[in-house]
Amino acid sequence: MPRAVLSLVFFALLAFPAAAQLDGAPKAPVAAAPPSQCPDNMDAFADSAEVLSCLCPAAQLGAGSVWGTDTYTADSATCRAALHAGMVGRQGGLVTVEMLPGLARYPGTTRNGVQSQNYGSYRGSYRFQGEPVRAQAAPAATQTQITQCPDTMTAFADSAEVVTCTCPAAQSGSGAVWGTDTYTADSATCRAALHAGLLPRQGGTVTLEMLPGEARYPGTTRNGVASTNYGPYGASYRFRGDPRRQAAAAPGAPQVCPDNMSAFADSDEQLSCLCPGEATLRGAVWGTDTYTADSATCRAAVHAGMIAQTGGSVALQMLPGAARYPGTTRNGIASNNFGAYGASFRFTGDARAGKAGAPVQAPVAESLQRTGQVQLYITFRTGSADLDMAAAPVLYQVRDALVNDPALRLRLIGHTDSTGTAATNLPLSQRRAESVRQWLVASGIGAERLGAEGRGPNEPIADNASESGRSLNRRVQAARMQ
What we know:
The chain is an alpha+beta fold. It folds into four domains: 95 residues, Ferric Hydroxamate Uptake Protein, Chain A, domain 1, CATH 2.170.130; 101 residues, LCCL-like domain (Ferric Hydroxamate Uptake Protein, Chain A, domain 1, Beta Complex), CATH 2.170.130.20; 86 residues, LCCL-like domain (Ferric Hydroxamate Uptake Protein, Chain A, domain 1), CATH 2.170.130; 117 residues, CATH 3.30.1330.60. 18% of the residues lie in helices and 26% in strands. The protein is built from nine helices and 25 strands. A five-stranded antiparallel sheet has the order 1-4-7-3-2, with helices on one face. The chain has a five-stranded antiparallel sheet with strand order 8-11-14-10-9, covered by helices on one side. Strands 15-18-21-17-16 form a five-stranded antiparallel sheet, covered by helices on one side. A hairpin with a 1-residue loop joins strand 16 and strand 17. It is elongated and about 90 Å long.
């Protein structure tokens, strides 16, 4: 080919490089624009239904406030909410945000190291699309679509809603609780669930119902959680579906008396309740016949002569405070002097102390929940480890408590009074504890859930100088094993 023609072809290719590509041939890729950084909050998108993908830098995760859980107020800090929702880790990342209408309430929770707050009605909301990518996945048993429980239920106050939610293990150890079985709306939700006996230490799912406020919330110590007395509060909640609490006492059985009557101060209520034998051994008493509201209820009943030290049923009346409470020693109980106190109580009915009867048994399941232990007044044949027929009602209570709470494990500890020698009593107490264990195993309870030991006369809970004291010391103690 002539040189001139070659030159023309070469320059044509330089001038028109696209001409060297045929139609339909692959073209060079065009670089996509990087995602924009997320707005500090989504308020500018309120009143829209937009879906936005944006980038959360790590530095943006620590700034700003968050209101709500899973669904957040539009003015919540976007990237901090994404961390709370588990959509990004501490290094940040890409998120997709969906704008939503406003809600009537936004419950706050503590999750993934971020504390969100409760809020009422707000005009616009958002939530994140996609699957959470939490640094630590929830245990398989709790990997459901159920939202984590709010720190408290105050966002649901003034409603009658039923809420099902999940309590992580870490959440049951923090916060204050007011009340027993029915709790103030600002009580720590998961800690109250642990107090109510609904939640194991490893966490789990609970269902609760919102209720109107009550005039008082008596506090108790139960399942290792101390709740506190409180007066009137505008909203309450209680948990549903607790077979352990339902089994604590038969329908119509009397309630166990409160440790003291402080929760009923400033009222004129009348109350009938049961004093188990072991409850008469605890607490201080101030006054005579009329007692300060914070006096130990069952110990005051012994002092007043209403029951023997072995326990019984009592009726009492709340009264206004008095200017003074003189102390006396009576029926083996020393009460103390006290000055003015804001509320009082007295027992009604005839004093009936005298010869002690058999110790009154505390409800087994309820006592195990409240204190982690219970004294079992199980009768044996004299000087023997053979169970008496009269022991059956108490044994059935222990069996039912174990059946209704499959996680419950008990150590059975035999005790005797001081009658006889230690060489006789120590092995006798061991055999009696073992007899109870064998009865429970024969009734279908797994042997691995029960231990047995004997301590003879070495750990009395009452004075061995009286028959009532000795009868309280002859017992098998059931203590929860962790």
